[in-house]
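Input record (Table S2, row 216):
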Amino acid sequence: MLTLALNKGRILDEVLPLLATAGLDPLEDPRRSRKLIFETRHPGLRLFVVRSGDVPTCVVHGAADWGITGKDTLLEHGGEGYYEPLDLGLSRCRLMTAGDPTFTPRPGQRLRVATKFVKVAQRYFSAQGQQIEVIPLGGAMELAPLIGLADLIVDIVDTGNTLRANGLAPLELIENISARVIVNKASMKQHRAQLRPMLDALAAALPPAPAEEACA
Ligand code: PRP
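Output record (PRP complex):
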């Protein structure tokens, strides 16, 4: 029996129909149940649903053989201890810096950056040779510049509505984000014969990639 770890929230809404097309869907809807572990239509697969950051943790420790979560979560986790064989192309968004468009830092000013992506923010600004103070927050990062807690934020931008509604603007793109499949390294070796057909079924269930825009 293999175990799949899924990400709660928006990704789950997009991943469940994909799992259904691939014949890997849970026998009951995890969003409407207090149960924690679910059997699936595939007799060799069960799944559980956890917070995003717990997906790579469970996969790295072998508590799940494979998992599905956002690239943002994987970047923050550090990318060690698992393979990342499949980009599902779902739940696309951008990981960005954002802030008050009128904010201008003083020369040499150490920026205060509010985020739940602490490691990503440190890596990004340090690659630019910029010292920052990270203000760790669990959510509602957009609030931080409004209440004087931070100069900038690092957060997910999808439609941009949350930023706009708060008088903020997206500034620099850190990474394009989408949902990814990750696999425990030992499971990939030991259970390849069971895992491979599941990954192939998932890949086959993906909608066709949007056509590239033609060059002018
Ligand atoms: C995310 C993110 C932004 C918002 C961006 O929050 O943190 O606040 O979505 O989406 P938009 O560009 O379409 O407005 P989410 O609602 O997932 O909740 P969270 O703060 O708990 O992460």
